[in-house]
Amino acid sequence: MIDSLDSFHAADSIWAIWGVNSHQDFVDKFMVVGKFHPNVPEEIVNEYKIVERLLCYSFYSYKLFDEAFSKVTRIFESAVKLRLTQLGIAVKDGYEPLNNRLKKLENYTSPGLFKEWDKARKARNIFAHPTSGQQFGIIVHRSFLQMVNILNTLFLDKEVIDKNEAVLERMKTETKSFNNGLFKLEIDDKAYLVWSIIPYSCFYDTDKLKSFWVFHPVFTFFPQTTDKLDFSLPICLRLKDVSYSEKEIIAINLENNRPIRALLTDKKENRDLLATHKELVDSSDSEVQEMYMNFLDTELANEIVKFLYHECWN
């Protein structure tokens, strides 16, 4: 018999490590609500509401964080079966390996998205067969956002996927001259010197194109050895109403609805700064350069996940 419910309503002390002092702090920092486009079936949307509850309750018991992620991997498995049924593809009665079912969908998406789906399958296998004492905790926090993205992309028609990828390739081709040069980026009443501008992702939302761009800044500092590693993130922007010419890119920042502008520059002082930037990078240890590229790949992948989650689903 339980004498008091107080212990069930006490915050797990581990959250204090990440500066969580109240349930609202937890919600602000770690809650991942479901965001789904209209073609995601109601069954999937409702199942994810259970994930939200588990996440919310993990404020009181840290181990529920893993239970919430385990649940979303099971939703993924259900979503694969449901998508096969929607497409009229045969599903075996009784047990059928998730890998076999997933492969039946390979021709209904892009290679890039299928690769992400397969990662979700592997996560499902890990959480379906946990080892004793296994605990991931907030390590899987970003993966919740990615799983929401995956559930959304499972229910996108291939025509939509192909359209978005074609638009991205066209943007990359048309802005290739911005991949390597020297530009002044004007954003939020500030100016930055950048040497590379590249679109990495895009999505049409009711005929409104949203895109994710990376602006690589000119460094005034770059670590030379592994003793003092302090890498700077590139400037990552979620944009709409993008237009470009040979010399400039203008757009609206989705995060604050304010304009941004990147303009080609050839001022001597800017060229001198770019030369210093190149010297700093070239003179650093090869190990530092490799670590920076790995850091960049990881952070950009994270930013793309956040772009899709925050901007692309209703």
Structure in a nutshell:
The protein is α+β, with helices and mostly antiparallel strands and 314 residues long. The protein is 46% helix and 17% strand.
Structure description:
With 314 residues, this protein is of the alpha+beta class. Strand 4 and strand 5 form a beta hairpin. The radius of gyration is 23 Å and the shape is globular. 46% of the residues lie in helices and 17% in strands.
Sketch the major β-sheet. Answer: 6 strands, antiparallel, barrel
Mean pLDDT: 94
Strand content: 15-25%
Cα end-to-end separation: 45 Å
Number of domains: 2
Mass-distribution shape: globular
**Helix/strand-derived class?**
alpha+beta
Spatial strand arrangement across the major sheet = 1-2-3-4-5-6
Q: Helix and strand string, N-terminal first?
A: HHHHHHHEEEEEEHH
Question: Count of DSSP helices?
Answer: 9
The total of beta strands comes to 6
Helix content: 40-55%
Contiguous uncertain segments of 5+ residues: none
What is Rg? Answer: 23 Å
Topology:
Layout: H1 23-30, H2 42-57, H3 64-86, H4 98-103, H5 111-128, H6 141-154, H7 158-174, E1 183-187, E2 190-205, E3 208-217, E4 235-244, E5 248-253, E6 259-264, H8 268-283, H9 286-311
Antiparallel strand pairs: 1-2, 1-6, 2-3, 3-4, 4-5, 5-6
